[in-house]
Design brief:
By secondary structure, this protein is an alpha/beta fold.
Length: 711
């Protein structure tokens, strides 16, 4: 019988055990190793909670780092081992069921916060120790000049036993005494440190105020100061310290000595630099990541007058296909090679390349002539991608689309610049890819508006922002109104009334076209019922409703239509569903099956925009359509008399073909009386257009039909 799987608490306990075994050997504690493990268990639980929380809690992670100091883990090796343990085992034992890539990224942030908390707590503890030493030093400030002072023994004990480095110098900077800790920091003998002058310890990375503060102290103008300072060791390596220098006065209050307290922060600094690098660089390619790129971009955009920037936003064309066909490991190797090539393109001062994520890269150039430089940078990038890349023995051709944004500093935020570059890149991709495009403010505005409409669509239907206008269908023989086409409109709160061309493509892209189309069908059929009840003299008015390709493939199309007709209490022959010719080109039997079922019930099916889809006319015989709607491009020349004879022959041929197949012909876009008369002579059955009426509210159609009926 197999053992029960470990629960979360068991996995947490294992992590705490591994952690305690790693850190216990370098911990100054009287506890046993199992007792120390019990101290770490609540800290491990806190790390697990931070790892899996919905929002990252940096304060909680910092608190764990601080708690390590409280548990006497003050050796620098204790922090390093703790972070290595968290990096290797926290996600493994406490991240079950989560997105591993996201958890790894969060683990890196957690380590950074944990190290920061540890450093802060250790600094506070060190400062407390420094204050105690300073107090002892002040109580024994005559220790050098008065060798027999009664408190010398007490000061000497503190001086020699302290874990931090201590040095005493006169006001000229000559070092008089140093303790063992300070000698060990510098890695030499006491003689190599004593006898030197403080002024010998300048370093190129000294902050400007360091020596200004020193001068003020030895002149007696300040009592102490605290700085971060680097020193050269005798072997040429660098020692980084937290340095506190205090002024010691004699019994009369006159400055006499200076006391320096040094905490070695070299390892901690290197660790912070490593964590900083990991937090700002992409783990796969080694390029700067999104975080560092935004820092550089923000700096470029806040530069002084006369400064400009240029940004290239690159997205690889067809990268998903490579990932899907060859696997993610091959995709990663491809990205590494692309990153190396991009890095070689941005070597001039003020240029950088970063990876934003996936197959998206950015290149930035700054200076005063970026209009020329950014074009050259984009050209270098495109040229760098020309040579094939070998991956797993395969020669892969890589292409990319680039969006370029260039302009003066100080006018836009980093988010606005990146959004414009992203929009421009997709414009290059939609134009065929393997090219670069320059940002166009008007195109950006259209894309932003389109995005805003896309995000507003789902709630617009719930808020009742859509309405329907109806354009009459007129019989060309007697001029009577036979029905109307339902045309949906969107009353947008900011943009006003929007036609279907503005939002139907967006609805199809998001899938909202199915519920929206169902709503249009339901409203239109209900309106047809109202017309029938109000207008019985001229027979029922038929309603034409457009179907999108997405609705054609929706499994509920037939049942939804049946339910809507039954609820409205109308017969199927009152409804005509319009399907574009392009949607039915090459349609198989599965796609045509729901249309055939609807046609068998008595619903008319109209082939909309006929003549624009380049379909084989012979296919008309297998389509379940009863009406051809001739596209307006065939009849525009008929708006004036005489019409183009070629267009007349084409329309005459289509009408003859349609009638031979028992199909009625409807013409769209009729705008003049001459056009209507010629279409009547050619045998077209019905027409719609501004000549008869523009789309309008349902009551107006009822009035037109009533006028026709009463003649």
């Amino acid at each position: 019988m197999s053992a029960e799987p470990d629960g979360p608490e068991d996995r947490l306990r294992r992590f705490a055990t591994i952690w305690s075994r790693a850190v216990f050997p370098v911990t100054s504690t009287s506890s046993t190793r199992p007792e120390f493990e019990e101290q770490l268990l609540p800290l491990a639980r806190r790390l697990s909670e931070v790892l899996r929380a919905r929002a990252f809690d940096a304060d909680a992670a910092r608190a764990v780092g601080a708690a390590l100091v409280g548990a006497h883990c003050t050796d620098p090796e204790a922090l390093s081992r703790s972070l290595d343990c968290v990096d290797a085992y926290l996600v493994l034992y406490c991240g079950e069921g989560g997105d591993q890539e996201d958890l790894r990224a969060r683990s890196a942030r957690l380590q950074h916060a944990m190290a920061a908390g540890y450093a802060q707590a250790l600094r506070e503890r060190t400062l407390a120790e420094q204050e105690a030493i300073s107090a002892a030093a002040l109580r024994a400030q005559g220790v050098v000049a008065q060798a027999l002072h009664a408190s010398e023994a007490r000061f000497r004990a503190v001086f020699e036993g302290a874990a931090i480095g201590i040095g005493i110098a006169d006001l000229s900077g000559n070092i008089l005494q140093v303790n063992g800790a300070l000698v060990r920091m510098f890695g030499g003998s006491e003689q190599t440190v004593r006898g030197r002058n403080v002024m010998d310890w300048t370093h190129p990375e000294d902050a400007p105020q360091v020596w200004k503060l020193y001068d003020e102290l030895v002149r007696g103008e300040r009592e102490h100061y605290h700085v971060e300072k680097a020193f050269y060791r005798p072997d040429g390596t660098v020692l980084w310290t937290n340095l506190t220098v205090s002024l010691l006065r004699d019994a009369d209050g006159e400055p006499q000595y200076q006391l320096a307290l040094m905490e070695d922060t070299t390892e901690r600094r290197l660790l912070n630099l490593r964590l900083r690098y990991e937090a700002t660089h992409d783990a796969l390619t080694g390029l700067p990541n999104r975080t560092l790129f935004f820092e550089r971009l923000e700096k470029a955009l806040t530069a002084g007058a006369g400064q400009r920037f240029g940004l290239c936003y690159l997205d690889l064309d067809g990268f998903k296909t490579i990932n899907d066909s060859l696997g993610h490991a091959a995709g990663d190797r491809l990205l590494v090679e692309v990153a190396d090539r991009l890095q070689s393109c941005a070597t001039a001062p003020g240029e950088m390349v970063a990876r934003l994520g996936g197959d998206e890269f950015v290149a930035l150039t700054t200076g005063t002539d970026t209009e020329r430089e950014v074009d050259e940078l984009a050209s270098r990038i495109m040229n760098a991608l020309v040579a094939p890349i070998m991956v797993e023995g395969r020669e892969l051709t890589v292409r990319g689309s680039i969006g370029i944004v260039e302009g003066p500093a100080g006018e836009r935020s980093p988010a606005e610049v990146l959004r414009s570059a992203d929009i421009t890149m997709y414009r290059a991709k939609s134009a065929g890819g393997n090219r670069f495009e320059l940002a166009d403010p008007e195109a950006d505005a259209r894309a932003i508006t389109r995005h805003g409409l896309t995000t507003a669509l789902p709630t617009a239907l719930d808020r009742g922002e859509f309405f329907i206008e109806y354009q009459p269908l007129v019989h060309l023989g007697d001029g009577s109104v036979r029905g109307a086409e339902a045309l949906v409109r969107w009353l947008h709160p900011q943009h006003g009334i929007l036609g279907p061309d503005r939002f139907i493509p967006l609805a199809e892209h998001t899938g909202l076209i199915v519920p929206l189309g169902r709503w249009v069908l339901e409203q239109s059929v209900r309106q047809a019922r109202e017309w029938r009840d109000r207008h019985t003299d001229a027979g029922p008015l038929r309603i034409n409703v457009n179907l999108s390709p997405c609705q054609l493939t929706h499994p509920g199309l037939v049942q939804d239509t049946v339910d809507i007709l039954e609820r409205a209490g109308v017969t199927p022959d009152v409804l005509c569903l319009e399907v574009t010719e392009s949607a039915l080109i090459g349609a198989d039997d599965d796609l045509l099956k729901p249309l055939r079922r609807l046609a068998e019930m008595g619903v008319d099916i109209a082939l909309d925009d006929f003549g624009t889809g380049y379909s084989n006319l012979a296919n008309l015989r297998r389509l379940p359509v009863s009406v051809l709607k001739l596209d307006r491009s065939f009849t525009q020349s008929m708006q004036q008399f005489p019409a183009d004879p070629v267009d007349l022959k084409i329309v005459e041929g289509i009408v003859s073909l349609a009638h031979s197949l028992n199909l009625a012909v409807t013409v769209e876009g009729v705008e003049t009386g001459s056009q209507a008369e010629q279409l009547r002579i050619l045998g077209c059955d019905t027409a719609q257009g501004w000549y008869y009426a523009r789309p309008g509210p349902p009551d107006r159609l009822h009035e037109l039909a009533l006028v026709d009926a009463t003649g």
